[in-house]
Amino acid sequence: MEWCEEAQAAERAGDWDTAISLVSAHAECCSNDFRAHDNHLWHMDLLVRAERFDQLAELAVTDVHARRRLNRSLHEQGKDAALRHRAEAGDRGALYYLVRSLCAKGRLRDAREAIREIGPENEHAHKILADRTPKGAARRARIIDLDEFEGLFRTFSHSAWRLETRRRYASDEVTDTYRQFVETGVVTWDENDPYCELIRSQTKQGKRVERVRIVDQPPTTGQLYLLNNAIRNSDLGEDIRNVWRTDADRLRLPSEDFWLFDSRLVARLRFDEGDHLVDVELVTEAAEIVRYSVTRYAAWQRAVPHEAFAAKLGSGGE
């Protein structure tokens, strides 16, 4: 078993000492080797999940990723006092999280006062306050139709990454291929339809198209259909992986379906009560892009390539 598999097994078992030891030995902040850099992010995530905030705080003195992960964790736990303490010590990131937290709670006066006392000349903190609305009010969003959404697949520069979280997609169930799958378990896929031609042309240019699909235990019919569909999409150059919903819940993956394009634009898919895709919400705020990028890292690190996932499912394994 390779060290990565040992670390994942230790993580699943809650053996934090072993997992942290293995991952940290192969981690390097801001490394030119993306694997070492990804392992560094994994190391930070393990420290949070093991609730070793003292270690994270020590690393945060010199490590920007540790600092960001610590501040985000304090924000998620609602520890405004700790964020304020860090902000008063000169951590601008902590100030930003503090202002976001106060605004989300509708405490705009407190947020304004915190900026005045800690960072009166910090333009970004003022912008966060200006952009935020009281808790319960709808955020401003740009909604696009499905035609404009399709255009995003023609214009992305280097990567398109998808998280699929739903148990069914109504659009799949009206196709002839879905009928074939339900009736026979065998599907004749058309690899020359417009979507296939578009994705094939993009991946031939070296662009990455990747997906992680969350799967229930047992899988729904729609999820099994998509597992079969992964054979076709892989032939187009896509990299498709799967993760059990129980693991997704443990990783705190969000429930939203979304595409992340070029690590700068999120297209959040919006469905009606009948599981029909209605429209798409575009997200470009920097803090939100960071959040979705962290989700991508966590999901991709733990997901299993669809071939191995299907083989294990077929053998009755988990």
Number of strands: 8
Largest sheet: 8 strands, mixed
**Helix-strand sequence:** HHHHHHHHHEHEHHHEHEHEEEHEH
Structural class: alpha+beta
Q: Tell me the distance between the termini.
A: 17 Å
User: Reading side by side through the largest sheet, how are the strands ordered?
Assistant: 1-7-6-5-2-3-4-8
Helix content: 55-70%
Number of distinct helices: 17
- Please report which band the strand proportion falls in: under 5%, 5-15%, 15-25%, 25-35%, 35-45% or over 45%: 5-15%
Cα gyration radius (Å): 22 Å
- Taking pLDDT < 50 over at least 5 consecutive residues as the criterion, the unreliable ranges are 133-138
What is the overall silhouette?
Answer: globular
Mean pLDDT: 88
Your description of this structure?
This protein has 318 residues and is α+β, with helices and mostly antiparallel strands. The protein is 57% helix and 14% strand. It has 17 helices and eight strands. Strands 1-7-6-5-2-3-4-8 form an eight-stranded mixed β-sheet, with helices on both faces. Helix 4 (53-60) crosses helix 5 and helix 6 (80-88) runs antiparallel to helix 7. The model is unreliable at 133-138 (pLDDT under 50).
Q: How do you describe this structure in short?
A:
The protein is α+β, with helices and mostly antiparallel strands. Helix content is 57%, strand content 14%.
Task: Give descriptors for this structure.
318 residues, alpha+beta
List the topology elements.
Blueprint lengths: L2 H11 L2 H9 L9 H16 L3 H8 L3 H13 L3 H9 L3 H13 L3 H11 L4 H9 L10 E3 L1 H10 L3 E6 L5 H4 L2 H9 L9 H11 L3 E8 L5 H15 L3 E6 H6 L6 E5 L3 E7 L5 E7 L2 H17 L1 E2 H9 L4
